[in-house]
Amino acid sequence: MKILAIETATEICGVSYIEDDNVIATVEENIPRQHAKSLPLFYEKLVADTGLKLSSLDGIAISIGPGSFTGLRIGLSYSKGLAFGQGLPLIPVPTLRALMDSGGEYSGAGLALLYSHRDIVYAQKFSCENGSIPQNDPSPYQWQDIEQNIKKMDQVVHWGCNQFIDDLKHVQEGNPSAEIISILAHQHFDEWVINKPYDLVPNYISPFEVGEKKH
C-alpha cells in the first residue's frame, strides 16, 4: 500500500510517503503562516526525491484537526486537489491521535494537548492497549480547567503549551509530523478511508464554544 500524507494542522508543514510499513521519505519544517507557499514546494521535493507518482497511490492522508483554522483548510484543499485529479480516496487522520502517538509507547492513561490561543488548548484522553485508544472526543478547554487532570495521567504529550507546562516528568513535547500521519493512515486505512471525500471538512472544533462546556 502506498500513501502520501500531509500535515498542516500546526506550525509544522510537511509531506511524507509510506509504502506498506516503510516510510520512504518526509519533507517538513516548522514554518508558521507559510503553509500555502511551502506545501506545494515540499510536495515537489518529495516527488523529485522519491519518484512518487500520484497514479500509483492508494490514497492521500491528511491531518484533519483540530488545529490551526488556516492550516487545516490549506492542507485539506491541497489534498483534495491532488486526490480528485486521480480519483484517489482521502484518509483523514485525527490530529491529536497523531500527536499522542508521537510521544512513543506508554501504558495506562494518556493526554494529548494542542495549544490554540490565549489560554485555550485542545485536549483528548487516550488509553494504551497496543496503541493509543481514544477515550473521548477532542475538545477545547481553558488551561485552568484541564490543568488538574494532567497529574492524573501516566503520560502527557503537548504541542505549543510550554508557557503552561510545569516541570513534570511525564509531560513531553510531541512531534506533529507528516510521518506519524502516514503511519496511522496505513494502520487504519480500512477504518478511516473516504472514497468520495467531496464533502469532507476539517475538524475545526471552534474554541469559542469553550465557555459552554461543563467540566
Automatic annotation (TrEMBL):
Q: Which GO terms describe its biological process?
A: tRNA threonylcarbamoyladenosine modification
Residue ranges annotated for the Gcp-like domain, each copy included:
32-105
Q: SUPFAM superfamilies, alphabetically?
A: Actin-like ATPase domain
Query: Which cellular components does GO assign to this protein?
Result: cytosol
Protein name from the UniProt record: TsaB protein, required for threonylcarbamoyladenosine (T(6)A) formation in tRNA
The scientific name of the source species is hydrothermal vent metagenome
